[in-house]
Design a protein that fits this description.
It is a single chain. The chain has seven helices and 18 strands. Helix content is 22%, strand content 38%. It folds into two domains: 129 residues, FAD/NAD(P)-binding domain (3-Layer(bba) Sandwich), CATH 3.50.50; 91 residues, D-Amino Acid Oxidase, subunit A, domain 2 (D-Amino Acid Oxidase, Chain A, domain 2). β10 and β11 form a beta hairpin. The chain starts with a strand and ends with a strand. Strands 1, 2, 8, 9, 10, 11, 17 and 18 form an eight-stranded mixed beta sheet that branches. With 290 residues, it is α/β, with parallel strands linked by helices. The chain binds flavin-adenine dinucleotide. Flavin-adenine dinucleotide binds next to α1, β9 and β16.
């Protein structure tokens, strides 16, 4: 059985950063990810100054900045008239080393951290390892993982559940996950179509106000991301259809048949677990957290 100081479930941004920080501090970590490789779906694409400051502390910020788009300005604009209000983060250059938003897909950071971990003396990265269960004893935690052909176990002093919003670790711990889910659904489309060739005065981050169809238009290195509200009564398959995309692009830039690399419908939750550690308190030596 593999052993470590800490076993981390989930190689998303939280698990990858936690694993890297611990490994750098000399803690033996095993990072287990259910998928066969780092997830590359289009999710968050903005790093704000405080996040860049944290990433700078662990020596990752500069490498990430090389992969992203430095975006000091962002706009709130009216869809109908194109009038905009400009916010310029250069104005806080005396408060932060990073007076800009960095436009960069979150999976770029995760992949780079995982690459560092794969050659790190204190880290082991295991893909195709889906956590299914764990048990705690006086001297640690044993976590069980489903792999394509077997169940594998990792024993550690601590287990960190960084397995996202549907965390099985949180569910096994029975932790409350209070809060609410917004009733609206949201639709994001990613396209390599250069929107700034069709819409005047776009910057990399644009919040577009409109009583009928507000928009967020975000430039990431690989694509423009378009976020629109989606009718909650409409089925996801309809929202993701070519017809819906054509209608959105037609209203936006007067074109149909615009290529999209990702289409996602999602809900937004505002929830937090009632406690972050279980089975351990400061001074004790073992436990799980989510
Ligand atoms: C479509 C979409 C758009 C988004 N856009 C934005 C945005 O614009 N701005 C923003 O700030 N945030 C955005 N978010 C939210 C952001 O992506 C999340 O906050 C972030 O991914 C959370 O990171 P995490 O590491 O906690 O979890 P995740 O990124 O969900 O990573 C969890 C990892 O754990 C793995 N995993 C799950 N279960 C198991 C298991 N049992 N065993 C092993 N591994 C497991 C998963 O495969 C995954 O790799 C968006 C989310 C979505 C879905």
């Amino acid at each position: 059985m593999l052993t470590a100081d800490v076993v981390i479930v989930g190689a998303g941004p939280v698990g990858a950063v936690a694993a890297y920080v611990l490994a750098e501090k000399g803690v033996k970590v095993v990072l287990c990810e259910a998928a066969g490789e780092c997830q590359e779906d289009m999710r968050a694409s903005t790093f704000h100054p405080p996040t860049l400051e944290i990433l700078d502390e662990i020596g990752v910020a500069e490498e990430l900045i090389e992969c992203g788009l430095i975006s000091p300005k962002y706009h709130f604009r009216k869809r109908q008239t194109g009038e905009f209000v400009e916010f310029d983060l250069s104005g806080i250059a005396d408060c932060t080393k990073f007076p800009f938003r960095l436009q960069c897909e979150q999976h770029v950071m995760v992949k780079r951290l995982v690459k560092r971990l794969e050659s790190h003396v204190n880290a082991t990265v295991l893909f195709n390892h889906r956590a299914v269960w764990f048990s705690q004893t006086e001297d640690g935690v044993t976590a069980s993982f489903e792999t394509p052909f077997s169940i594998e176990q990792v024993k550690a002093r601590y287990l960190v559940g960084a397995d996202g919003g549907n965390s099985i670790i949180r569910k096994w711990l029975g932790a409350d996950f209070d809060g609410f889910t917004y009733p609206e659904k949201f639709l994001t489309l990613s396209t390599t179509k250069e929107l700034s060739a069709h819409i005047d005065n776009l910057v990399h981050v644009n919040y577009v106000v409109d009583s009928k169809e507000w928009l967020v238009l975000l430039r990431a290195p690989s694509a423009w991301r378009i976020l629109v509200p989606a009718d909650e009564a409409t089925e996801d398959a309809v929202l993701l259809s070519d017809d819906t995309c054509d209608a959105i692009f037609s209203r936006l830039i007067g074109e149909t048949g615009v290529p999209t690399s990702h289409r996602t419908v999602y809900r937004v939750h505002q929830r937090v677990v009632n406690r972050f550690n279980h089975g351990w308190s400061i001074g004790s030596t073992t436990g799980a957290c989510s």
